[in-house]
Specification:
Oligomer: single chain
Strand order of the largest sheet: 1-2-3-4-5-6-7-10
Number of strands: 10
Helix content: 25-40%
Shape: globular
Structural class: alpha/beta
Largest sheet: 8 strands, parallel, barrel
């Protein structure tokens, strides 16, 4: 095995600017460039950037996934500013939903802005309230993808296995692509030793997606998300055929991580990625 396997290609979007990493922009951009020129470059997706900070952008070669915590009202001014910055290219949008907005109203506004979103991957952060099922239903049959929040800075930000399993089951059944954000600090389900939070593993999400594609029930997916045996997860994922890998990654697109090296080190530790991609020079400079 050499390089990054297809199962993990583009899996890790670089969210270095976000908690808990909170990297400074002058440090994060050069670090991203180093990631993209490293032996593990194929693991790295786009640079996640908040719309509220577009005024800080300076000319550089950078593909950004633009987060819009203020909703669609902030889209046009953010894209206008980015267009004026040489080398910075938006490739995706990650759009939050204002608390008062219904699924029907949101989708109507989104369609009205389709000239602005053309050519971009659009992810809608699915709310964790009574509107959840409406938004998931609204995305079915569209080219718009879902974004699931899988953690945060408080325990309540982490959905339990049942909630996340139901979400994955629904989007796979309806053909909606998805990404995840926050809380996926390690490959395998774990309890954080510092704060006691129960954290999902990104390998668990990959295998749950595979099982959903194979007709697994919500209960079976929840059990997969709860699995803490990294060797077992690694073996099952390592045995996937090329066509199954393609199907899994067509569904589960990526996740945002404030550290690209942490998931990479976990993958190397589980022998899913060769240790040769983690040279001393790349590990210390990133």
């Amino acid at each position: 095995m050499t390089g990054i396997p297809a199962l993990f290609t583009g899996l890790c979007d670089d969210a270095a600017l976000f908690p808990p990493g909170n990297a400074a922009l002058p440090d994060a951009v050069p670090a991203h460039a180093r990631h993209r020129s490293s032996p593990y470059a194929d693991l790295v997706g786009s640079f996640v950037f908040p719309a509220s900070r577009v005024e800080e952008l300076t000319p550089t070669e950078l593909d950004v996934s633009l987060t819009l915590p203020g909703g669609l009202a902030t889209l046009e001014p953010a894209l206008t500013r980015i267009a004026a910055v040489e080398g910075v290219t938006p490739v995706a949008l990650e759009i939050a939903i204002p608390a008062e907005q219904s699924a029907d109203d949101f989708m109507a506004v989104l369609y009205a802005l389709e000239t602005l979103t053309a050519g971009l991957d659009v992810f809608v952060e699915i709310p964790r309230d009574e509107r959840r099922s409406d938004f998931l239903a609204a995305l079915a049959g569209t080219s718009v993808s879902a974004k699931f929040r899988t953690g945060g800075v408080v325990a309540e930000a982490y959905p339990d296995e049942g909630e996340l399993a139901a979400a994955i089951h629904t989007v796979v059944a309806t053909g909606v692509r998805f990404k995840a954000t926050a809380g996926l600090h390690h490959a395998v389900r774990n309890t954080d030793s510092h704060n006691g939070f129960e954290q999902h593993g990104f390998l668990n999400l990959l295998l749950a997606t595979r099982r959903a594609l194979g007709g697994g029930t919500v209960t079976q997916l929840a059990a997969t998300l709860a699995e803490r045996d990294g060797a077992l997860l690694a073996q099952e994922l390592g045995d996937l055929s090329d066509d199954v890998v393609e199907a899994v990654r067509s569904s589960f697109r990526s996740f945002g991580t404030c550290s690209v090296l942490e998931p990479l080190e976990d993958l190397v530790g589980l022998a899913l990625v060769p240790s040769s991609v983690l040279s001393t020079e790349q590990g210390t400079s990133a």
